[in-house]
């Protein structure tokens, strides 16, 4: 009786095993494994000493071929594979290391990795702080001007391979402003540049890291019509006794100004300089003089000063003869000094 029971138990176990084998066979025949390749999977360095940085990693992406059931291969992408290279124990210099692939989905097998090894160049790590420079490309629409652009930060930290970090002089935020008529605000990606303003583009992206990588830029734009007006010199004092003011030359003779109120511009006939003291002068002088626009008026792009030449000459009497300070031979003295610049 016991033998019969044991025999029946063995038959049941054998039946279950055979059923499982048969099920797997049927499933395999109905859902045969397939292969699919995922391209450009990023290689992640691991184990590198904190005092070092990767200058280059060639290649820094690899292609990975997986096999598995079709349902596990659907929508397969770079995110479904983690590819690493162990840099533990390495110092500055060049080395070749194998890569390791870990699938993120169950029942996937790695069939092939191309290439299987990468070459890495390592340098000491360096970090420094550099200024942020704003570059505006283009011009706003006519009669509109840009008013005090602002950056969310004025400095960033640059870190990475020493040879690259040393080259960075500043980082640049470039904003296109051609034709704009209203204030704009953008998040702008920063670009590191060298002392000559040339972009620094590392072969391996992580060889040069900016913190932060982006900056918020606000560019206010206001409506300010433009007008070109002549420049007038404002003189104070009197020349020396026996001398008078002759020709006055101003360079440039005209300048462009702007105002938010169009009526202010319509009433503006000329632009004065700051006061020029000519008290006691007996010879021609040239002065670099700042401008003094009225309230509500600003200078457009251009010089903020003008060059004023004031001719100081002996006073001429009614008969055409020149009289110097003593009324005698002052004409000769004045003529000799008249072309000089003070």
TrEMBL record:
Residues 317-342 are annotated as: Disordered. InterPro entries: c-di-AMP_regulator, YbbR. Residues 320-342 have a biased composition (Gly residues). Pfam families: YbbR. It comes from the Bacteria. This is CdaR family protein. It comes from Thermaerobacter composti.
């Amino acid at each position: 009786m016991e033998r019969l029971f044991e025999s029946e138990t063995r038959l049941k176990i054998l039946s279950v095993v055979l059923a499982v084998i048969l099920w797997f066979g049927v499933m395999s025949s109905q859902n045969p494994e397939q292969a699919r390749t995922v391209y450009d999977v990023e290689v992640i360095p691991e184990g590198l000493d904190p005092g070092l940085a990767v200058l280059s990693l060639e290649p820094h992406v690899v292609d990975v071929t997986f096999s598995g059931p079709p349902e596990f291969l659907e929508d397969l992408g770079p995110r479904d594979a983690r590819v690493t290279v162990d840099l533990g124990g390495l110092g500055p210099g060049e080395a070749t290391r194998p890569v390791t692939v870990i699938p993120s989905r169950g029942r996937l097998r790695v069939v092939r990795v191309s290439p299987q090894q990468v070459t890495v160049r390592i340098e000491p790590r360096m970090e420094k702080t550099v200024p942020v420079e704003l570059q505006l490309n283009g011009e706003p629409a006519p009669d509109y001007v840009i008013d005090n652009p602002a950056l969310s930060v004025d400095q960033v930290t640059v870190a990475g391979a020493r040879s690259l970090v040393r080259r960075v002089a500043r980082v640049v935020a470039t904003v296109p402003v051609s034709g704009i008529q209203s204030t704009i605000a953008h998040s702008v990606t920063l670009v590191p540049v060298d002392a000559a303003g040339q972009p620094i583009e590392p072969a391996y992206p992580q060889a040069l890291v900016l913190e932060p990588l982006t900056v918020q830029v606000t560019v206010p734009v206001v409506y300010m019509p433009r007008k070109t007006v002549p420049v007038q010199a404002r003189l104070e004092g009197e020349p020396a006794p026996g001398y008078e003011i002759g020709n006055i030359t101003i360079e440039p003779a005209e300048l462009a100004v702007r105002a938010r109120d169009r009526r202010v511009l319509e009433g503006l006939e000329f632009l004065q300089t700051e006061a020029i003291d000519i008290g006691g002068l007996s010879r021609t002088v040239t002065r670099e003089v700042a401008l003094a626009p009225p309230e509500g008026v600003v200078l457009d792009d251009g010089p903020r000063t003008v060059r004023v030449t004031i001719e100081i000459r002996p006073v001429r009497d009614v008969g055409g003869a020149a009289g110097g300070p003593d009324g005698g031979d002052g004409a000769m003295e004045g003529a000799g000094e008249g072309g000089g610049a003070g």
